[in-house]
Amino acid sequence: MAVKKTDKHEEFDFFQAVEDNFEKAARHLSFPKGLLNQIKACNSVYQMRFPVKIGNEYQVIEAYRVQHSHHRMPTKGGIRYSLAVDQNEVMALAALMTYKCAIVDVPFGGAKGGIKISPRNTPEAVLENITRRYTSELIKKNFIGPGIDVPAPDYGTGEREMAWILDTYMTFKPGEIDGYGCITGKPVSQNGIRGRTEATGRGVVYALNEICSYADDMKKLGLTTGLKGKKIAVQGLGNVGFHAANIIQEYGAIVVAICEQEGSIHNPKGLDVQAVFNHRKATGSLKDFPGAKNLKTNLAGMEVDCDILIPAALENQITATNAPNIKAKIIAEAANGPTTPEAEKILIKKGVMIVPDIYINAGGVTVSYFEWLKNLSHVRFGRMNKRFEEKNQEALVNLIEEMTGKKLSDKEKGRVIHGGDEIDIVNSGLEQTMIEAYKEIRKFWKDTKKCESLREAAFAVAINKIGNSYYSMGVFP
Ligand code: GLU
Fold it and tell me: Which of 6-15, 277-286, 330-339, 375-384 is the least confident region?
């Protein structure tokens, strides 16, 4: 089933790599072979070709939607716009979504979409045209809908594309009461949810905060506990990389290197992430950021002296070529599939802890789940209970004041009396999800002899949940 990549990723078969990880993890479980094969397979692969007029010429666009697993419905996963898109990549990414959803307990099967275009070099009007046409193709084949398959942003897409998809869907399905749940990652004004844009990056930080809290694990890596003072290198200043780097600074971590397509920069004293972002926006490049050194290549920033490396761009970035030079003790796979299997072997030998993509970047789909729930319930989180909570807290404060004879200042009262707004509820739900999921993976990793890595443990936890779901469905008695 796996299709070898023939473009720039010569030797890297992404889907095969996911299958290999699955096999390694499945050894720790006792499911029958047939069930494991069912979990592993991609259920539906929809390959599209459609014409789009660009200027005076027609171009044939290559696009995909893959639904990897239907054990839970709807299926869920982003849509990627990139010139590296091909069937193998979309299948691999769809499979990762299945395991990711299981790990964070969101009730979806995995899916992924991709369109082979360069979002940077395609005019906005053409991008809109392609997005709307792609959506109509999905509708035609019943590959989209709040109970069928719910796309979201991924590499090269964002709120703007989600709004086009929503608008196209609603045009074809007028009056569908739950129609807004056909897509997540929408603008807030289009029934999106606060906190979704930064959710993947924020989830990475919540996860790292939890991971770094275990003294024995940190000691083994030669690190202290906590994020404070940790040196961070980040690859990719897109939506995920930017927010992860920006938010981790709030925990006292120091971002020392940032890499992008055009180059990488380094400052051991720390980079102000928002200022780097603004500089790149203004000049079109990371390079020549005041106080930072331009490194020789765009990947060199991944090899600087640091504690945590966050690859937040694309797959196949940490390879056998650069793995030996990586100095980080923890690699947090904010991107999907950034580490090749060969690189992983080298890094594990060096004692590096690789926190796998299927766990650490699951914050995005977690908040997508909250958005979908919001769309199906037709009410914003916090709307019904914020004031009720505040009245209860106020009554309690008044009672304590009466009993003690002491008065709190307005500022102190304000801190205690605060009913949750949508953003508070989303972020606390996300934090709780990332912490619980890590506890589960870590437990399996520690309890299971011969479990080589966190990736193996994460896959095993996911397969276990999916397998049990097939059993309870009665498919495999
Ligand atoms: N594209 C994101 C991912 O790879 C989010 C998917 C979603 O929210 O459905 O996890």
Answer: 6-15
Mean pLDDT of the chain: 95
The catalytic residues are 112
pTM: 0.95
Domain 45-190 of CATH type 3.40.50.10860:
yes
Within this chain, domains 45-190 and 199-360 share the same CATH topology = yes
Q: For residue 228, report the distance from its CA to the centre of ligand 1, in Å.
A: 29
| Boundaries of every domain in the chain | 45-190, 199-360
Distance CA(148)–CA(145), nearest Å, equals 5
List of residues 6+ apart from 147 with CB closer than 8 A = 73, 74, 178
Q: Which of 157, 243, 368, 434 to mutate to test the pocket of ligand 1 (most atoms within 8 A of CB)?
A: 368
Structure tokens at 272: 């102000």
Question: What value does the mean pLDDT take over residues 315-328?
Answer: 96
pLDDT of residue 477: 62
Question: Which residues line the pocket of ligand 1, CB cutoff 6 A?
Answer: 76-78, 100, 152, 154, 184, 336, 361, 364-365, 368
**Looking at domain 199-360, which CATH architecture does it have?**
3-Layer(aba) Sandwich (3.40)
Determine what percent of the chain is predicted with pLDDT higher than 70.
97
